[in-house]
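Lab notebook page, bench 4
Experiment: in silico fold of construct C2
Operator: M.H.
Input chain length: 427 residues
Purpose: comparison with the prior construct
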Amino acid sequence: MLSTWISARLSRHDIHYGWAMVAVTFLTALVSAASVGAPGVFIVPLQKEFGWSNAEISAALSIRLLLFGLMAPFAAALMNRYGLRNVVVSALITIVTGLFLSLFVTRIWQLILLWGFVVGLGTGMTALVLGATVATRWFTARRGLVVGILTASSATGQLVFLPVLATLTELYSWRIAMLALCSMMLITAMAVLLVMRDRPSDMALLPFGHNSDQPAAPPSPANAPIMSTALGALKDASQNRTFWVLFGTFFICGASTNGLIQTHFIPLCADYSIPATGAATLLAAMGIFDFIGTIGSGWLSDRYDNRWLLFWYYGLRGLSLVFLPFTDFTFYGLSLFALFYGLDWIATVPPTVRLTASTFGSERANLIFGWIFTGHQLGAASVALAAGLSRTYLMSYLPAFFAAGVLCLIASLAVLSISRDKRLAVA
C-alpha cells in the first residue's frame, strides 16, 4: 500500500505518520466542507430559475445542517467499528451522489431530498468529529494544534471555495460549479483510499508524543453495536454538567456560523446591492483569517486555560455580529467585520475538543464530541431556517444577526461556569 511506502519515507526523516493522516484529513475536511458551504452561492440562482422562495430553499439547507450534526455521534461509532478509511470513502461517495443528482432537480421536494437528506447524511460522516478522531487517536502531544489545523480546513473549505463557485456560476451556471465540486470530491476519495489508516497500531506505531512506558488507550470493541455505542455515550455524558455547557455553547456557535453567515451572508449582501462574487470574496477573506485564527487557537489551547479562551472567542464574535448592521455595508466596514469575525469563525473547536477529551478520555472523546457537535448543528439548522423566515416575512436579515450576537455574548459567560465543575480534569 502507498501508506506503507509513505511511512517508510517519513521515518527516514524522523517524521511520524500521523502528519500524513493530518494531511489527507485536511484535504477531506476541505472539500467536504466546501459542499456544505456551496449551497449559499446557489440560493439566488435557484430563486431565479425555479421561483422558489428563500424560506423554501432554506428549509432544505436547514435539514442538511441538522443531519450534518445528528450524524456526528453515529459517524464516530461507525469509525470505531468499521475504520476511518471505509467510513470516509463511503461518505464522500454519498455526497457526490447527492450533489450530482441535484443537477436534474425540478421540484422543491427533490432539492430537500438531495441537499437536505442525502448530502446531510454524507457530510455528517465527515464533520468535525473526523478531525477530533484523528487528533485523539494519532496524537498525544500537539493534540490541540492538530485539532486547530483540521478545524481550520473545515471552516476554510466552506469559505475559500465560494469565490470560485460564485465565478463559475456567474460565467456559466450553478450546474457547472456543482460538477467542479463533484470532481474535487472524487479526487479526494482516491487520496483517502491510498493514504488513510485507522490507528497508529496499523502502522506498528504509538501515537505521536505518547510515552512508550505507558500503554495506549485500548480501542473500542470492534463489534459494538452502532446505536448502543452512540446512545450509551450520550447517556454517560448527559450526567456531567460540563457536557451540557459545551453542548449549549456549541449550539450558539453553530447558530452564529454555519446557520447564519455561511448560509445567508451572500443573500444579505445582495439586499445591499453587493454582487455575489464580492460577497463570496469577503467570505473567502474570512476563511483566510479563520485559518490563521483557528490554528492559533489550537496552539493556545495546548498552553492556556481553555475555558477563558472560549470566553473571549464567544464574546468577540458576539460583538462583531452586533457591529455588522452598523457598517452600512461599506467596503471598509465589511472588511473590518471580515477580519474580526474570520479570526474567530470556528476558533472555538480546539478548546472544546480539549475540554471534551480531558473530561471523558481520549478513546471516547470522538463519541462525546459527536454529540456536542450535534448541538452545534441544531443551532445551525435553527438559525438557517429562522433567518430565511426573517428575510421572507420581515423583509430583513438584521433581526437574526442581532439575535445571534446576543446569544454569543450569553455563551461567553456560560462557559465560565465549567470552572465550578469539580469533575473536570484540567486540560
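Observations: Residues 25 and 131 are 7 Å apart (CA to CA). The first helix runs from residue 2 to 12.
Next step: discuss at group meeting.
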